[in-house]
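Students often ask why inverse folding is considered easier than folding. One informal answer: many sequences map to the same fold, so there is more than one right answer. In these notes we will look at a single instance of the problem. The structure comes first.
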């Protein structure tokens, strides 16, 4: 989850001007103007997108051929009631102002392949597009196929075929935040959470059952084209801005405040959902699409932000940071990676055998680190066993977006703690005020990945967020993350390369960072 807001603009801490001499010892070679950095053979280079964020807004397709109005996010972002609600924090931009990739996918993939020299691409399928109607009554693949939208299946087959034709290995996320409206009434639950009926992640049994069916169906349908699957994207970015603290920075339906019991249920639903989706994909994808001997490699995408106490001398802040770190980084990953479930959030976990062994790889999304301050509020005390009432104050939480070392810290943490191969599945910066420059951000983050590799962390690929400007959730089109700019008001949705595109292309092409780029964006990886 990326950060935004005035409070986030805190000073850059990594010192400038120190040539990255240490990198020469990590597989480096001397380039034109300094030590170059190389990545391991076979390291994947890609960009990442998500269906809801890029599909809609087609320049020439009929609206009903391009739009998917069936998701909770579509309802949430377009209802006059949620747009008017101060706690929904919506920009008011319709998702139909997006970049129209449902129509323009072939030219996008050609750009990624030919202009960026990428060999991989991360995309997501929209559950609501594939299943516009409830699937509760369907049990078999044939029964599910009868309910699936032929246009959606054809569209995704066409995209996956195009990826292959362009030499891009697909990594497919099955659920990137959005849920079908038939399982989650985003507007009703936002307006009256206590009495809404379709409660998405809070209806644990139903959602786990139905999302597993959807995952198994997708794996059977697309398994001949896809080997690398991600179950869920950023569970933390669903339960925190969904049930605890929606804000201008990020809200997610139903965007209700301090619903701690619902937040807990959502966490445990998503843990179960991941495991059951894993089983369903494992059982249904039996085709080795890329000939590497493996039909399916199934992971989870998680956002990691190193958590620091705002004031390292205040024991309360230190404790708050410890608790937040536990809630953010440990609870979920420990369950999905190791099968250890802390179901009352008291710090003690028990092994649940049906969760063990369900994560082949971990996707790390990295955007920032956070600073927290102690806060005493019973309503937020969702870690009672750890420290009564000690948690953090969301109002004083600070995001530091200019701390590339945090990616190294996140990778080493994840590797040491969970021991699974890692892909950096998202990492990026929009070229707007308050964020680091896109090209500098890219090179500094890559240099820190190199440092993690040199320390033995098994990082297998990198996906920049994002290929094109897209619909940034509650912030709408105002936070453009693309290597290619797309003006939402341009009816042709023309893509225009930003300077960072050439920088990324240079990196991907040489499978490394040139000495010239290392000199242009110097960091000290020893710091
Ligand atoms: C999400 C993306 C989002 C990006 C930038 C991540 O939290 O997975 O969907 O656009 O960050 O905020």
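Output (designed amino acids):
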């Amino acid at each position: 989850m990326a950060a935004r807001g005035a409070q986030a603009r805190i000073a850059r801490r990594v010192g400038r001007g120190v040539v990255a001499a240490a990198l020469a010892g990590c597989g480096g070679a001397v380039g034109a103007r300094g030590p170059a950095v190389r990545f391991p053979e076979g390291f994947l280079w890609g960009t990442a997108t998500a269906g809801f964020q890029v599909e809609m807004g087609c320049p020439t397709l009929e609206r009903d051929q391009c739009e998917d109005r069936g998701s909770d996010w579509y309802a949430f972002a377009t209802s006059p009631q949620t747009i008017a609600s101060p706690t929904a924090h919506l920009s008011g931009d319709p998702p139909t102002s997006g970049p129209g990739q449902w129509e323009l996918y072939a030219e996008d993939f050609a750009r990624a392949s030919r202009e960026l020299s990428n060999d991989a691409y991360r995309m997501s399928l929209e559950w609501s597009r594939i299943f516009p109607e409830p699937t509760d009554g369907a049990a078999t693949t044939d029964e599910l196929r009868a309910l699936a939208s032929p246009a959606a299946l054809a569209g995704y087959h066409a995209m996956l075929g195009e990826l292959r034709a362009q030499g891009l290995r697909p990594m497919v996320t099955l659920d990137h935040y959005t849920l079908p409206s038939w399982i989650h009434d985003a507007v009703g639950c936002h307006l009256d959470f206590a009495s809404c009926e379709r409660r998405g992640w809070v209806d644990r049994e139903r959602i786990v059952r139905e999302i597993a069916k959807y995952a198994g169906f997708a794996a059977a349908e697309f398994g001949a084209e896809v080997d690398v699957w991600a179950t869920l994207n950023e569970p933390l970015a669903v339960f925190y801005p969904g049930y605890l603290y929606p804000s201008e920075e990020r809200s997610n339906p139903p965007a209700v405040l301090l619903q701690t019991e619902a937040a807990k249920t959502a966490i445990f639903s998503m843990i179960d959902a991941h495991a059951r989706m894993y089983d369903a994909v494992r059982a249904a994808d039996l085709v080795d699409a890329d000939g590497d001997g493996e039909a399916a490699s199934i992971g989870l995408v998680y956002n990691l932000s190193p958590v620091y106490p705002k004031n390292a001398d205040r024991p309360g802040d230190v404790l708050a940071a410890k608790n937040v770190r536990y809630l953010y980084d440990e609870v979920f990953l420990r369950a999905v990676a190791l099968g250890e479930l802390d179901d009352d959030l008291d710090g003690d976990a028990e092994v649940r055998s049906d969760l063990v062994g369900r994560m082949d790889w971990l996707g790390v999304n990295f955007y920032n680190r956070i600073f927290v301050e102690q806060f005493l509020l019973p309503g937020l005390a969702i870690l009672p066993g750890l420290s009564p009432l000690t948690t953090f104050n969301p109002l004083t939480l600070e995001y530091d977006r200019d701390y590339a070392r945090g990616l190294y810290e996140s990778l080493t943490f994840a590797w040491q703690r969970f021991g699974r191969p890692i892909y950096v599945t998202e990492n990026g910066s929009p070229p707007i005020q308050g964020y680091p420059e896109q090209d500098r951000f890219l090179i500094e983050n890559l240099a820190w990945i190199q440092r993690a590799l040199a320390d033995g962390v098994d990082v297998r690929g990198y996906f920049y967020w994002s290929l094109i400007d897209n619909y940034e959730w509650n912030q709408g089109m105002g936070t453009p993350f693309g290597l290619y700019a797309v003006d939402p008001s341009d009816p042709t949705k023309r893509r225009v390369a930003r300077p960072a595109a050439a920088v990324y292309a240079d990196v991907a092409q040489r499978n490394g960072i040139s000495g010239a780029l290392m000199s242009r964006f110097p960091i000290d990886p020893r710091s």
